[in-house]
Amino acid sequence: MPQTFSYEFDTPAFKGKTSFSTGLYINGKSVDGIDGETYDVVNPSTGKVVTNISMGTSKDIDVAVKAAREAFSTRWGLNVPGAERGRLLMKLADLMDDCADELAAIESLDNGKTFGWARNGDIVHSIQTIRYFAGWADKNHGKVIETDDSKLAYTRHEPIGVCGQVIPWNFPLMMLTWKIAPALATGNTIVLKPSEFTPLTALRMVGLIEQAGFPPGIVNIVNGFGSTAGAAIAGHPDIDKVAFTGSTLVGRKIMEAAAKTNLKNVTLELGGKSPNIIFDDADIDQAISWAIHGVFWNHGQCCSAGTRIFVHEKIYDEFLQKFTAKAQSLKIGDPFGTDVYQGPQVSQIQFDRIMSYIDSGKKDGATLHLGGARFGSEGYFIQPTIFTDTRPDMKIVREEIFGPVGVVIQFHDEDDAVRQANDTHYGLAASVFSKNIDRALRVANRLHAGTAWINCTNSTNTQVPFGGYKQSGIGREGGEYALANYTAVKAVHVNIGMSI
């Protein structure tokens, strides 16, 4: 039998308890993995083990897929009207609302993000996502298409089937809801793998999914590693669709595996190296506050982070001085502490990766303007870091670091800013700061990015699609656009008088 994880929080931000199974969740039951193996979950603030959980492999993915297929054929899919699917999702959102503080505390413990951001950002957005797609469950309509009087032609939007979903560690609960909400609303069943670094909120959600009344097999959660359980999802011949959020490198592997097996439908939300363009007519204090948010929010562990900050040469010195002072004022420490802005990186692996990029920047000749070192003596904390005097070919300018590291670069005019901003194989997001709305819109339209923010950054809404150009991904999540990821369009032709 799987173990039960019980934990009592006694922090300035939250006092309370949590308790849930650490097993795999397959066909409505919490079970051990077939191989009986477990792995450790580590608190990134201390580097110490919090608990260990059951580890799934390709064998467990097989069992979960069979459960999802049987549920899709009998208890879900076209067997359940959209209104009922929407009711269950609304119930799930209500249950999440009831334990929002607990979910935020688990997220902070497991991921290292500050409790305030987890509670007021991630959890609120996650609940809104479930509610938003609950409303779509009975409104995803096809169309009647005019042809001629001898035929009735119409389309149906039908669920695809069994969906494999692999989510990252930077926004564990939010990414889970981005995946399951549109899939369930449109009638699909799910086999989901959370990140091996941050599985705890997904496991806590199991109890809420059961309590909401979802039948067994609709949602299956298999903990495990990307190289085993994740790879098994990507290459499984009886999974009809795979959705992945993570690195571009892994996204390529998933797309290749999907193509080599059954050409399953694929959506990918991948990496980014987002530009943040600040013109000389911008509100400089507003731009600095947003630029700080853009590069250091969530400890820099954000795919849309505005880590390439382009500043007009006329205001470069003033911007850099004020930006530096603001970065120096950020409080780093315990995610449950008072007024803490930045917690630890998620793991030792990620800590080492970020530090290797910082070393690369120094070796390549960039100026380490601020930070660049470990913070504290335990856990995976890194100082907010700024480089200047960079070249376009440097790794810190071209590659996604996924940590609190940014580069500040001068530009001469609008064309120069756009040229430098678009000089990347990524295209997830971009930001423009200017009081001239004509200029701001003109530049936003010229940027090769799936999201363009004007006078803000890293500001998302459930109703608005999110996804990338170029090597930042395929497909869109969020809003009505996400429904297309999980539906197949069937055209029906009815002969009402045509002879042959």
UniProtKB/TrEMBL annotation:
<dbReference type="GO" id="GO:0019413">
    <property type="term" value="P:acetate biosynthetic process"/>
</dbReference>
<comment type="similarity">
    <text>Belongs to the aldehyde dehydrogenase family.</text>
</comment>
<dbReference type="InterPro" id="IPR029510">
    <property type="entry name" value="Ald_DH_CS_GLU"/>
</dbReference>
<feature type="active site">
    <location>
        <position position="269"/>
    </location>
</feature>
<dbReference type="InterPro" id="IPR016163">
    <property type="entry name" value="Ald_DH_C"/>
</dbReference>
<dbReference type="InterPro" id="IPR015590">
    <property type="entry name" value="Aldehyde_DH_dom"/>
</dbReference>
<protein>
    <submittedName>
        <fullName>Aldehyde dehydrogenase</fullName>
    </submittedName>
</protein>
<dbReference type="Pfam" id="PF00171">
    <property type="entry name" value="Aldedh"/>
</dbReference>
<dbReference type="InterPro" id="IPR016162">
    <property type="entry name" value="Ald_DH_N"/>
</dbReference>
<dbReference type="InterPro" id="IPR016160">
    <property type="entry name" value="Ald_DH_CS_CYS"/>
</dbReference>
<keyword id="KW-0560">Oxidoreductase</keyword>
<feature type="domain" description="Aldehyde dehydrogenase">
    <location>
        <begin position="36"/>
        <end position="492"/>
    </location>
</feature>
<dbReference type="GO" id="GO:0004030">
    <property type="term" value="F:aldehyde dehydrogenase [NAD(P)+] activity"/>
</dbReference>
<dbReference type="InterPro" id="IPR016161">
    <property type="entry name" value="Ald_DH/histidinol_DH"/>
</dbReference>
